[in-house]
Amino acid sequence: MRAAMKRFIPLFLALLLTLQQPAPTTAVIEDVLDIIHVVKEVSTGILKAWDIVQASPLGANIDFPLMREKQKKVLQRLKEVTRQIDQTEEQHAEYVALAIDTVTSHMNLNAPMLAKMNDIGDTVNRISSRYQQMQKYEAHKDKLEMSTLVTFAEWTVSPNAHSVHHLMDRLHLTLFGSEEKANTTGTSSSSSLLAQLATSYEASTNEICNTQQSAQQFVYSLYADIALTELKAYTMMEFSWMMLRVYGKGNFTQEAELMRTDYERRTERTLKLLKDVMTRADRIVWRCDPKKHVAGVTYDEVTRLLQGYIENEVDLNNEETCRETCSFYQSTRSEGCYKDLYCARQPKCSGRLYNCQFVDSDMWVCPSPKNSTRRYEYIEYENGRTLGQRANCVRGTTKVDSWWRYLFWHCSYCFCMCDEQGLKSDRFFNLREAVSDVKRNRVVTGLRFVKKNRIFHLQIQEGELLPRGGINHTTLSWKPVENYNIFDRDVKKGTDYHTLSYESRSIDLDDVDTDDNSFVVTGVRFRVVGAHLNLEACYSEFDFKTGQLLQPEVNSYWKSNDNTDVSGDSKTRREKVSLSNADVSTRTITYSIPQSRHNQYIEFTNTGMDKDAAQSTVPFMDIQDVISNPPVPLSGIGIYYKGRNGYGGFLGPKIITYDFTPHVQVPKNKL
Ligand SMILES: *[C@@H]1O[C@H](CO)[C@@H](O)[C@H](O)[C@H]1NC(C)=O
Ligand SMILES: *[C@@H]1O[C@H](CO)[C@@H](O)[C@H](O)[C@H]1NC(C)=O
Ligand SMILES: *[C@@H]1O[C@H](CO)[C@@H](O)[C@H](O)[C@H]1NC(C)=O
Ligand SMILES: *[C@@H]1O[C@H](CO)[C@@H](O)[C@H](O)[C@H]1NC(C)=O
């Protein structure tokens, strides 16, 4: 009897971790967002193994060659099963920055939540180490005693407090709450730990910075961690029952059946809850401020759109008179240079002058270096008021004094806003479209602003779309932006690019999104609506299962928010985000926070007079990459404004990740 048993040991080890090559029956799972699919595949694989075991006679009277044949088939299944789990886990770990054990260290959780997360981490580790142990037995398969395996199997399925069976129960209870309790108290899924984690993730802006995941992606990766752990546990238990049965320890059909029902019920409940939490979790990914702002690397600027400029009244009209006050001149131009006074010592503003005002008669002006886009570092008036930040003046200050003409007329130096186009004024936005390579099944996966040839472009990152919403990592690339110059022949203002000016300097702040889950973003562009730059997204139809775009040349369309600041009723009318008297964006010492909502707009304007002598143009443009990790197709894109009160802030793109909720299907057919 004992000798007979011993002969069986290698067989069962092989059953656990086979030497045989797997039959290429099931497709290899490539994409990460596919845990649900893996769970289904693995469960089916295990059941097929059971069919084989069950068809064999029990205990002593075994037809050995036939048994061996069946074992072969079983172990092929198991090999596939463990391979799929391992592979999925590897990919999951590679792409997902935030696993369960790092949640505790990154997020600001309250004490009870922290305790629960620690508990979950502990359980996950215990199950994983048992799973590894199972895999380790392979190395020693010829030397192991049968009793070792039986003990392992018994331990795995036994009803005591340390068994895998119990650990699985506990894991589920901690994360999703008790089912009975939920039924009797009527508490909804929102009280589950998963929902609470989603909420605190959305609340902590830092989180999105660290992980580059939308809240929905975060919830899904947590779920994936748990689902993989449960799958390991389930696999161990199934094969333990099989093992015990083949070793003649009993029939166990009933036990395995019970456990399976348990697992099914739990999976069903988990998926329901997951779907619920995912529906409510937001899908936006934006980019927070870098640790250090670096010009040309993390941000760039529109320059010299409206800029503080000093001019004497005598030069503000073409009759060389001083009969008015500064504030009389709300829209004028520089008409001359009377007697070559201060006007001859500074570069003239050749554009229009707006909103002139009188500050004080006499002043010291500190001019900026020749290569700067500023005109003045600071201006110090005799009455003590200083515009801009007073510092050591490298080029030396110039004294500028107003004067009296006869006794009646004061020829004052006014402080105006200069709107001058020229080589130092970068104020262009690309209007050509940026579309992914749909012929090669590429879709948009990320966005960033870039300034090229003095023109701002919204650049797209594209990647190959794979089945079930996956993106092929190795294909990710930033599509080069159009390389043209505003002075090139055949390049037209208003068609190829937009020029900001005093009258036309607004940009719409929108989220362009779709509810139709069969479309993803394949392109972006700006258009001009009235005096506003307005964002448009191109959508193309695709098949979720195959990951193929469906005739994108035909099934694509552009979408945008057509509301304007004068349109319709107060509900649809665009709201202005006001920005005035702001300091230079990069001078803030705190992190910017998003300040705008969908259906708003903001005007590019000068910085504050006192803070910066109105020398810079705000908001600045955030030029950091906005991508998600893992990369996913997008259901939307947007432009938003972030900043802090008193500072110019930044404009940046955001992405809205594809909504996977409809594809989280609570299984109808039994596993
Ligand atoms: C809880 O309620 C659901 C549906 O209302 C039911 O299917 C499930 O069996 C109940 N669970 C328990 C443990 O009472
Ligand atoms: C094992 O148990 C199941 C259900 O209890 C029963 O249907 C089956 O016949 C049993 N198998 C053997 C070989 O005794
Ligand atoms: C201007 O030139 C100086 C010295 O040539 C250099 O240090 C500085 O970085 C330049 N500034 C800009 C804005 O190019
Ligand atoms: C991903 O892209 C690479 C390079 O184009 C290709 O070799 C590979 O087969 C692709 N993977 C999938 C799953 O399509």
Low-confidence stretches: 1-33
Q: Which ions and ligands are bound to the chains?
A: 2-acetamido-2-deoxy-beta-D-glucopyranose
What is the averaged pLDDT score? 84
- Global morphology: elongated
Q: Count the strands?
A: 33
Biggest sheet statistics:
8 strands, mixed
**Please, how many helices?**
13
Structural class: alpha+beta
Q: What distance lies between the first and last C-alpha atoms, to the nearest angstrom?
A: 37 Å
Radius of gyration: 34 Å
- The portion of residues forming beta strands comes to 15-25%
The helicity comes to 25-40%
Quick structural summary:
The chain has 671 residues and is of the alpha+beta class. It contains 13 helices and 33 strands. Helices cover 32% and strands 24% of the residues.
Features:
7-stranded mixed beta sheet; elongated; 8-stranded mixed beta sheet; 671 residues; 13 helices; 33 strands; single chain
Descriptive overview:
Residues 1-27 form the signal peptide. Pfam families: DUF4803. Residues 71-98 form a coiled coil. Keywords: Coiled coil, Signal. The protein is of the alpha+beta class. It is built from 13 helices and 33 strands. Helix 3 (64-95) packs antiparallel against helix 11 (215-246), helix 5 crosses helix 11 (215-246) and helix 6 crosses helix 11. Residues 369, 371-372 line the site of one 2-acetamido-2-deoxy-beta-D-glucopyranose. One 2-acetamido-2-deoxy-beta-D-glucopyranose is lined by residues 58, 251, 253-254.
